[in-house]
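Hypothesis: this fold can be encoded by more than one sequence.
Test: take the structure tokens below, design a sequence, compare later.
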């Protein structure tokens, strides 16, 4: 009896010692981490509805992007009761916009939906690649080299000079005798009318359209002259 008890005690001690001496294995968090990542990936990030500068134009708060820039950088625009000075600030569902000079608070989602505006994400990398390709095609891979810079500068100056030349030159008009129903032409009278026609052209090129219309009415009433802006000709049309 004592011998059996002794044997059982020895076996229990040996088994306990074996279990305690097993190499320890750290608890693996791989499964938990994978589950957490899967849950995070299932939550889609909210998509922006519009940027702040565009929203101000959409809501008719300003007439241009320049005006939007001024009031935003002046700290006059609030998003969710916080001053916002970033023009490209993305606005989301539930955002509210207020401007100092307005009494009302603008609901971004309502305005975007009412105007039918659809936000398009700008791919800066794609735009950069497109510009680089265009430059490479034009200058044969001499991008940012000294030769490229000189050629670019020369082209810029030539374009500017050409633009200034065109701006200072009036487009010529001519008298069309075939479309005129007058039988006799006084050279002095023709010269006076041509001068008036060119005066009208100068007004048109300066975008002074009211003055140009006054000259057109004067030519029609005093000289029975009609003008054709498409072909830049004038002629008599006497009743």
């Amino acid at each position: 009896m004592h011998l059996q008890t002794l044997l059982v005690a020895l076996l229990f001690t040996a088994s306990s010692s074996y279990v305690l001496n097993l190499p320890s294995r750290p608890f693996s968090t791989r499964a938990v981490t994978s589950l957490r990542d899967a849950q995070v990936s299932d939550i889609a990030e909210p998509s922006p509805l519009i940027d702040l500068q565009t929203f101000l134009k959409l809501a008719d708060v300003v007439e241009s992007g320049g005006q939007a820039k001024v009031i935003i950088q002046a700290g006059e625009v609030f998003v969710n009761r916080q001053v916002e000075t970033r023009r490209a600030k993305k606005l989301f569902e539930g955002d509210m916009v207020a401007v100092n000079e307005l009494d009302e608070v603008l609901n971004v989602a309502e305005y975007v939906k009412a105007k039918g505006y659809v936000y398009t994400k700008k791919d800066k990398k794609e735009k950069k690649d497109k510009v680089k390709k265009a430059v490479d095609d034009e200058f044969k891979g001499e991008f940012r080299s000294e030769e490229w810079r000189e050629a670019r500068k020369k082209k810029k100056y030539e374009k500017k000079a050409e633009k200034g030349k065109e701006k200072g030159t009036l487009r010529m008009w001519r008298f069309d005798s075939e479309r005129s129903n007058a039988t006799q032409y006084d050279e002095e009278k023709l010269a006076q009318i041509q001068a008036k026609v060119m005066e009208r052209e100068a007004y048109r090129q300066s975008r002074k359209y009211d003055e140009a219309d006054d000259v057109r009415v004067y030519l029609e009433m005093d000289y029975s002259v009609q003008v054709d802006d498409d072909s830049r000709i004038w002629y008599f049309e006497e009743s």
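The longest strand covers residues 96-99. The CA atoms of residues 82 and 97 lie 9 Å apart.
Hypothesis status: open.
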